[in-house]
Amino acid sequence: MTVARSAEFVNAVIKAYDVRGVVGEQIDAQFVRDVGASFARLMRAEGATRAVIGHDMRDSSPGLATAFADGVLDQGLDVIHIGLASTDQLYFGSGSLECPGAMFTASHNPARYNGIKMCRAKALPVGQDTGLATIKSEVIEGVPAYEGTRGTATEVDLLADYAKYLRGIVDLDEVRPLTIAVDAGNGMGGHTVPAVLGTLSQLKIVPLYFELDGSFPNHEANPLDPKNLVDLQDLVRASGADIGLAFDGDADRCFVVDEKGDPVSPSAITALVAERELAKEPGAVIIHNLITSHAVPELVTELGGTPVRTRVGHSFIKQEMASTGAVFGGEHSAHYYFRDFWGADSGMLAALHVLAALGEKDRPISELMSSYATYAASGEINSTVADAKERTMAVVEAFGSRTVSVDRLDGVTVQLPEHAWFNLRASNTEPLLRLNVEARSPEEVDALVTEILSIVRS
Fold first, then answer.
1. 350: Cα separation from own chain's centroid
2. What are the b/e assignments for 401-412, b being 16+ CB within 10 Å?
3. CA–CA distance, 105 with 116 (Å, rounded to integer)
4. Yes or no: domain 161-264 corresponds to CATH 3.90.550.10
5. Which DSSP helix (H) or strand (E) runs through 108?
6. Biggest alpha carbon distance in the chain?
7. What is the rounded distance in angstroms from the CA atom of residue 78 to the CA atom of residue 69?
């Protein structure tokens, strides 16, 4: 039996989709060892005999991964260590080896954080309703000891197999020569990009911040924040690159910058990849979350596919991917999910699709993407509020008769005339209210944002 902990402490660290906290204050070796033990008990009860474990480049990650593995081994499961890995490389390990997995990373969070993303065999999610609640309870109460034989650990290098697998899904052998500026943000893209793209002679990689450094000395590894794209934008313009790619800390998300240095909306990337997947499988299901541009379901419908709308969050999308047999799913946060990748998300696979689409045509990426950018959007705007529900209802009431429809799939989505809409969602982990607005023109978006924020922040 492991040590018991307070519910308040554990609830602050084990969240809806993963485990995340400040190293030394919320997360330490004993804590993750106990999480590993509970995870192993859960997986053993479902028939698993081994688990694969990977970690990112943060200074704390190797030690925490070893402690987690110790808990797994104590529960009788064998451990396969794959060492340094991107999160989607860990998903590849879970899928190809057909075993549960755990990835040590805090993604785009600052250096003092770390965390664990866990999955079942074939990269199936472990979320609040699919195992994390059980793990949380056991870490609070103490994990029962296992009376059987301790497992054994081995080390396996999967990087080359991961790269080969992705290139087998999207063939770049016949694309025209491309110059690609890549900002790895000192994260795991510096590990995976050379392996996946660096061996292709027709691709010239212009690298930026490829040195693995969990202190993130140049900028946060969070391309969703526009200030973290500035260096890549400058590099694209200076180098004359055909395209720019930016990866987050664990390289499971990929953002695109065009040849002018302008960011490309992740919704437009979702539409492009959806079109490519529907060309291979007409009539297929495409998943999109509710803050993705309406251009995505409109295009999918126009092409004869079936769009399915979901809540925000990878566990919800992965469940929908499995239950609907969807071929592809996209989120406006630049998470992209593929049936060919066990329904899991891979920023690298999305990047390969974009490079293939660009390399098949003799025109710039800005022209290629223009047909997918039907509407203007605000991006996600956060407001710190203590009474998110009350502020949301005040906004809904203020729009009154202008409202075409309201739904509450995730927060509140208000449909307005002329294809305009907005969504307000409360954060699951912070006192934040998140706003997304879309309309036909930037001017209309700005007007709606100003009106909504005047109520939210009053």
1. 12
2. eeeeeeeeebbb
3. 6
4. no
5. none
6. 67
7. 9
If one looks up domain 7-157 in CATH, what number appears? 3.40.120.10
**Backbone dihedral angles phi then psi of residue 135, each to the nearest 5 degrees:** -60, -45
Instruction: Name the active-site residue from 61, 86, 107, 333.
Output: 107
How do residues 59-93 score in pLDDT, each as one tens digit? 999 999 999 999 999 999 999 999 999 999 999 99
Report the C-alpha dihedral over residues 252, 375, 277, 355, rounded to 10 degrees: -60
| Catalytic-residue membership of 107 | yes
Asked if CATH classification 1.10.3720.10 holds for the domain at 376-456, the reply, yes or no, is no
Strand order in the sheet with 328-330: 306-310, 285-289, 328-330, 336-338
Q: pLDDT tens digit string along 311-340?
A: 988 778 988 999 999 999 999 889 999 999
pTM of the model: 0.94
Exposure string for 267-276, b = 16+ CB within 10 A, e = fewer = bbbbbbbbbb
Q: Do domains 161-264 and 376-456 have the same CATH topology?
A: no
